[in-house]
Specification:
This protein folds into 2 domains: about 120 residues, no CATH class; about 100 residues, Beta Barrel (Elongation Factor Tu (Ef-tu), domain 3). Helices cover about 15% and strands about 30% of the residues. It has 5 helices and 12 strands.
């Protein structure tokens, strides 16, 4: 049994969903179980009785990958179309501020050991919110902004390689170029290109070509946008 850990920004549910999908659709050898935990508890500003909040849900995909995520916002949205089984995990959703320590590990261990007695009622897959195609999804270690927009979305917008556009994000507008890759543009130009995520229909990323991490990245140009922040692209 091999464990692999990936850190996402605190409280970032869209990053959880995005990373979950990247692992779920990647090549694998044998069984894969993914566990993600981002529960920002921001659906209300009022007090939560007994620290109650969303529980953890279980999903099985067509390719056999199993996912356990805290059910919050975008956690299952990136894999929604491939879910064949979607169930709640029988686990307290209140009684501790630290459910991730006190309740979740035992239930997850059962599922990893293929003891599915901890699974409860079926959940309607249609209850999973659709993910808009104009949101920031993830900022990688090079400051590239991966988005929920896909290659097919650019095609629907009539945008093609070489077109100049204005990108507005975080109330900042910058000129960019539609490109087949980040290095297909001159140094210092913002590329709106097909990124490394998304497999058959890749996600679009905002890529500012730099030759040193001391230089300004796309994330810095747009003032380090948070996951889930919307952006806009308009052809010049």
């Amino acid at each position: 049994m091999i464990f692999h850990f990936t850190e996402v920004p605190p409280l970032d549910t869209i990053a959880i969903g995005f990373v979950t999908a990247q692992y779920a659709y990647a090549c694998k050898n044998g069984r894969m179980v993914i566990y993600g935990n981002a529960a920002p508890r921001r659906d209300t500003e009022k007090a939560k009785k007994d620290n109650r909040d969303n529980g953890i849900f279980y999903a099985k995909l067509r390719n056999g990958v199993e996912i356990i995520n805290v059910y919050s916002e975008y956690a299952f949205g990136f894999v929604k179309s491939d879910i064949i089984e979607f169930r709640e995990v029988i686990c307290p959703d209140s009684g501790s501020q630290f459910r991730s320590r006190d309740f979740f590990p035992e239930k997850i261990a059962h599922i990893i050991e293929q003891d599915y007695s901890v699974l409860g009622k079926n959940i309607d897959i249609n209850s999973i919110p659709e993910i808009p195609n104009n949101l920031v999804a993830w900022i990688d270690g090079f400051g590239n902004i991966k988005t929920t927009m896909r290659k097919s979305d650019l095609e629907k917008m009539g945008l093609k390689d070489g077109d100049k556009v204005i990108v507005t994000l975080n109330e900042i507008s910058t000129e960019g170029i539609i490109a087949t890759g980040g290095f297909a543009v001159d140094k210092g130009q913002l590329a709106i290109n097909i990124g490394s995520s998304g497999f058959d229909n890749p996600f679009i990323e905002l890529f500012l070509r730099v030759h040193s991490m001391k230089e300004k990245t796309a994330a810095e140009v747009f003032n380090h946008p948070l996951g889930g922040v919307p952006f806009d692209i308009k052809k010049i």
